[in-house]
Every structure is written in C-alpha cells, then in structure tokens.
Amino acid sequence: MSRPQDPQRPLFPFGNPFRRMFPKGSNLSPKLVDLLNTFEVTLAERLKKLKPADSEHVLSLSWMRYAMESLCAIHTDIKTLITALELPVCDWDDKWIDVYLDNSVKLLDICIAFSSEISRLNQSHLFLQCALHNLEGSSKQLTRARLSLDGWRQHISSKNPRLENCFAIMDNLAETIDLPKIKNSPKGKVLMRAMYGVKVVTLFISSIFAAAFSGSMKKLMDLHVPETLSWADDFTDLQALVNNEIRNIFSSGRITALKELEGVDTSVKKLYPIVQDGHVETEVLQYSTSDLRLGTERFSQGLDLLAKEVDSFFQIVLTGRDALLCNLRVGGNVTNSVQPNDSIGGQSVR
C-alpha cells in the first residue's frame, strides 16, 4: 500500500518475479504458448476498455460498476484457461493450491466489506426520502426535513469498521503477490503467470474501491509489473490515469470521491439553508427539491447496480473455490467443475 510521503513506492523491490517463474531454457509447447497469449491479449483488451475516455468519469458509480464487471470477466477468463489446460488437481503443486485457497478467502472478505459499505450508503436513501417527503409540506414539516438532512449527513460521515479489515487484507495480498517458483511443469508455469495477471488487476480495482469508499487516497496502491508482459503498458497507463485522478479529487478538498454521492451532498448543502430559514421562497425550494430528488435517484440506482456486480464477483470467487475443494476431496479433474459463467446469476450464499 502506498504511503502519503511516498506514493510511488514499488511493491516488487526484488526484481522481476518471472525470472524465477520462467528461467532460461524452459520451453512451452505451441499449444501452451497460444493459450497464454490468448489469455494475456484478452486481459490487455479488457484493460484498454476500462480506461475512461474522460477522467471525469473515474469513480462514477457507472464506471465502478463496469470495473467490477470487467473483473468478473477476467476471473471467468482464468476459469476458461484452467479448463483448456486440462490440468488435473492431482497434478497441482501444494503451493499452488495453498495460494489459490488463501487468496480466494481474502477476496471473499474484501467483497463482504464492499457489500457492507454499499449497503450502508444505500441506507442513507431513507433519510433523503423522508426529507423529500417533508419538503413538500408545511413549515412544521420543513423542520422535519431539516432533521432528516442532519441525519443523512451524520450517516454519511460515519465509518464502516469492516473496511479497516479490508485494508489489512489488501496489504497482505500485495506483500504475497509474487507467486511460488514452478518446477518441471509447463502447464503450471502458464497457470501461475496468468494468475499473477488476475491478482494484479484484482488488487488494483480493489484499491480503487477502497479509496472511494474510505474517502482517503492513502488506500491507493501503485503496482509495478514486469515490462516484458504484453499487458504491462495497458495496465500502467490505466493505473496512472485512474490513480492520478483520484488523488486530484481528494486534493481538491472534496468529502468523497464518489461522483453521485458528491452530487447529492452538493444538493443538500444548497437546500439546507433554505429549510433552515424561516422565510422560504416557493420557487427556490421547489427547484432545490427537484435537484435533490434527481440526485438521490441517480445515487440509489447506481448503488443497486454496483451491488449486483460485487455480488456476482463474490459468486465467481466462491464457486471457483468450491469447485477446487470438491475436486480435492474426490481426486478428480479441476476442469470438470470449474467452468466459465457457472456462477454468474447464481443464488446468493446462505
């Protein structure tokens, strides 16, 4: 995790992790090269599409939803690769399994923290709905509206303790991002290199969400990847654009990086002195109320759509983990259970 005094601190001070993963003289078959190339080309394309045409779109709920949607697709891509590799679980090194299972637990915990924060933000909608209802009534109801706006402010400024746990998990993932050394397994080398890419992008997007939800750019990470990777330039460009924009947002003094939440807060600030004053101009009140209503609807709808994507990601990680554990128990082939798209649209975990 980057620190305020050193925002560009490298996360990989020990050099290129692939020097151990792909030592000189290790040859991959044309089929394995093709599989790895297909995965990495697809990863690069997904990173290109994630780059916003306008930096102003960074940390809008619609962009965050697309970022999570892209992450779901990338994790589905790794399932597709595992299937194509035809690598039975019995051939998996214990270290690979340990890394996969440990990382999957951490990702599930991160998803739970993000879902918790989205739910907390969504609860603020009740305060706004109550305020909007009373803004159309008598002077007595305007007092109630002001109290609802006060409640909204207090709710939004409160902290979510689950996010703190999420930050510690992300730090641990960053420290262990260098995957284990692979010996005498060309398929294992392909799998671990692909998983490295998935882990980097997952950590990058998670750090963006953490910064947005926490209201602090100290949660941003600056990840450095080997230049030899075909997707390195696309990742570096995307990371630089997004992280710089987020830092600019917080440097400007805004209370939140979320665009839609900032819009609602601006409407509340304009409306509050109007309802606080005993003399209310009807036209001014109606205009401000309409502005708040539109912002509230946009914010609530954006949160609902984002929540669905976070849940989809949770399901993808969970089913991939369950499939591996199932195959470990029965001694079967991982490709029999880990199929792409098997968890999208699935039922929520009980």
UniProtKB/TrEMBL annotation:
Keyword Nucleotide-binding listed: no
TM region(s), chain numbering: 190-213
Keywords assigned: Membrane, Transmembrane, Transmembrane helix
Bilayer topology: Single-pass membrane protein
Location (main, coarse): membrane
GO CC, alphabetical: membrane
Family: Belongs to the ROH1 family.
Name of the protein this chain belongs to: BPS1, chloroplastic-like
Species per Swiss-Prot/TrEMBL record: Olea europaea subsp. europaea
